[in-house]
Amino acid sequence: MSAANAFYAQSGGVTAVINASACGVIETARKHRDRIANVYAGRNGIIGALTEDMIDTNKESARTIRGLMTTPGGAFGSARYKLRSLEENRAEYERLIEVFRAHNISYFFYNGGNDSMDTAHKVSQISKQMGFPVTCLGIPKTVDNDLPVTDTCPGFGSVAKYVAVSTREAALDVQSMSKTSTKVFVLEVMGRHAGWIAAAGGLAGNGPADAPHIILFPEVAFDESAFLKRVRDCVRDYDYCVIVVSEGARYANGTFLAEAGTRDAFGHAQLGGVAPVVAGMVRDKLGFKYHYAVADYLQRSARHIASAVDVEQAYAVGKAAVQFALQGKTSVMPVIKRLSDQPYRWRIESAPLARIANKEKMLPRRFISKDGFGITAAARRYLQPLIKGEDYPKYINGLPDYVALRGVAVRPRLKTRFVI
Amino acid sequence: MSAANAFYAQSGGVTAVINASACGVIETARKHRDRIANVYAGRNGIIGALTEDMIDTNKESARTIRGLMTTPGGAFGSARYKLRSLEENRAEYERLIEVFRAHNISYFFYNGGNDSMDTAHKVSQISKQMGFPVTCLGIPKTVDNDLPVTDTCPGFGSVAKYVAVSTREAALDVQSMSKTSTKVFVLEVMGRHAGWIAAAGGLAGNGPADAPHIILFPEVAFDESAFLKRVRDCVRDYDYCVIVVSEGARYANGTFLAEAGTRDAFGHAQLGGVAPVVAGMVRDKLGFKYHYAVADYLQRSARHIASAVDVEQAYAVGKAAVQFALQGKTSVMPVIKRLSDQPYRWRIESAPLARIANKEKMLPRRFISKDGFGITAAARRYLQPLIKGEDYPKYINGLPDYVALRGVAVRPRLKTRFVI
Fold first, then answer.
1. What is the pTM of this model?
2. How much is the pLDDT for B54?
3. Which residue in chain B has the smallest CA separation from A303?
């Protein structure tokens, strides 16, 4: 069997460890040059395939590829670009296969979330129909932790660690100043649909006196009076109150708290997100001095405080995807199977993309405490192992030494251009 | 000479390394038990002295005191509480001396910023007048880096490192998504009066194409059209734009950008701080997709990414304060004297509090690039050494193992109570 090429692309929101998965793919492929001659990476994700704009990873040194292990963001560029259904836009799928055929690409590795798994699944089917069967593998990635079947999604453990560490640190600050200054601190975290990241903030403390004193989940309808009572009680009992709020926190009618805010002079919804809305309630109704932080991209790019378990799993799913492909598996995704909580043991298995595509794994209600403001022991058992271990990048002059690719383009072979 | 006691207090906003200064004070005092029998720490800063609420540090183990080296926040509690002038409130000063006399306290170590140096200076003078001379030492601490005479202020180097690292990381995230998603990212940092912290963000990049592309300093009057033009140019040339904005950024007339925002339904100024205001301009005038982060307390409590140089200096000033006191120096503060930039060499000297109290060191104009949006080579030479080295805390189960004090109270000796 002569060697073919592989195509790899990053999709959707990037993470602190998605490049570790890329490293797993490329390093593993390089060990099988007899089967995989080269890995072409899509510049800006799948758009790079459609526009025939691919990065020749054979032009990157082993040292650079290894450096991906500790570099956040998406080194090849990612894209928020969902292929439509075959009925809606057959031309996109045909173009993909055309590009794959022109570059002798027989393997498609797609590193993303639910949507991307759907795309990988469709490409597998269509390539067969079109007489150029491509081996299609999904590689899980999402800070939202919402892919089914797999125990966790690479990217989540590092955000979870960042949020837990930051909550613990900020809490010490607020606590020490509470006598004469800030009483209430609000930290806004990601997770529009599910409260996985907010739940991770709960790891910062161990008892009711420890921060965070209140977590606001998207899964629990926001009850302003219960919330304000809890804040007041915390300040009475502990002299301060730390709140972790998910950007997806919402009222019973489904309105996001962030949307329920005020409008500016132009009539635009206030830009402040959910943290200032929550802080505003505390100010207006309770009169406490407050501060708030919005972690935003800092949380998902914080490679400097990545979880070692997360980094290891990110690499493992990339590596396994190549191994599965070489074993002839297609339309599958490597998943993490938890074998035990403590010590945390896991292994990689494969699961059909059809079981994963377009499905969301929500935070189970049993992970949220009865009062809706905290996490349960079950949640801790699940979350704790995922933030374990530190995997520090190398530093030069006080700053992480993140790699940049040469990014040499593969020479286009098609005469036609494709407009996105 | 029989041993007396020392009083130590933390003042004003806390930092990631103020406890390292406390460690320097206590460990050094413990080496001189013949002179300093015990260090009493004010609970909640100077308020603890006024209310006779002090923590007996002899009741803390050597291990706990060492643990202060890696614990952020103010372990003894801090306070925003400025003693008024002697004319305005003589009673406070008299009360202080009364408490010091009752507890045989001959040494006063005050760990804070400009205000605190003023207080320490006054206490020194008044104690002499009242016939109970107390040896008064200031210990520098402030993330704002605005104390004169000293090369830098412990606390600043770690915030600087946090901001530089976070900017670099978030920039990689934004850059990788810019083709189809966020084009402009805004990071709000502290520094209401001076742009030292914002300047540190400039260390994240090395050339015009590198983030941050724009820094908004309090020192440079905000010019909306010049700013928007620069954002547009960056997006045209680099496909994305990263902005670091100081909370103190202001218009030529002195109005803070943060205050110039919109008002909510109650007529309150919008709570969003400066980042959403800047992001709002980008949206309204240029239409780019944006994201913003507000680092707030996360930046000054981020012990997990503290600068090793900063930690070392924080300890050194605490240690030197005790040594100076034992040498009979009073009304002085240990300052850091820079001997060379590269390699960074420094030593501790002492400077009279009178030269430091109530004075602010502003960011020099020569540290800001001509166009007002970046830092100069001189700024880099100054800033670079301050973020050097990592000094990681110990982790347990994926979280930093920060110490908590037993906090045993010294038994009060006065019959009178003092109401703050």
1. 0.97
2. 98
3. B169
